[in-house]
Write a structure and sequence with these properties.
Elements (H helix, E strand, L loop, with lengths): L9 E5 L6 H12 L2 E4 L6 H8 L6 H16 L6 E4 L5 H11 L4 E6 L2 H9 L11 H7 L9 E5 L4 H14 L5
Parallel strand pairs: 1-3, 1-4, 2-3, 4-5
Helix pairs in contact: 1-7, 3-4
Amino acid sequence: MSPAGPPPRLVVVMGVSGCGKSSVGRALAARLGARFLDADDFHPPANIAKMSKGKPLQDDDRWPWLDAVGRSMAELADGRAVAACSALRRAYRDRLAAATGEPVVFIYLRGTKDVITTRLKNRSDHFMPPALLDSQFATLEPPSEDENVLVVDIGPPVQSLVVEVLRKLRSSDPTR
């Protein structure tokens, strides 16, 4: 996309729990003038209860959730949307994009297990316990080069990450 071109309409900030998806997603949405959706808000109570007990979700738990997130993004036909969603496997990213019915750019927030473990231990306002981080990394399929995914390392502060994402969006040609 050229610097003068419009930003993509649908963006998903993805990665394991604790990588900063919601914080980066909110800040990115604000910079793009987009609506922010947190995929956690679309989990049915059974999924939240399962994760709260330290049990990882299975694919049968995830499919309806991913469909709901994708449909909600697509319903914003008159505007832009940025969603925070783990989208750990390619099949999940494909399902989410298919549910929107249009191109989606994924922003993968990449971080080490040590950094993310520290973040999770310092977070008290979330249903996802640090004990599930191992299952998140076990499930994670890092994006391949043929996917519509931009990779950003999570070390810098949120505003610096957003600037980096915007730079990468402008220097690439996603969704065109």
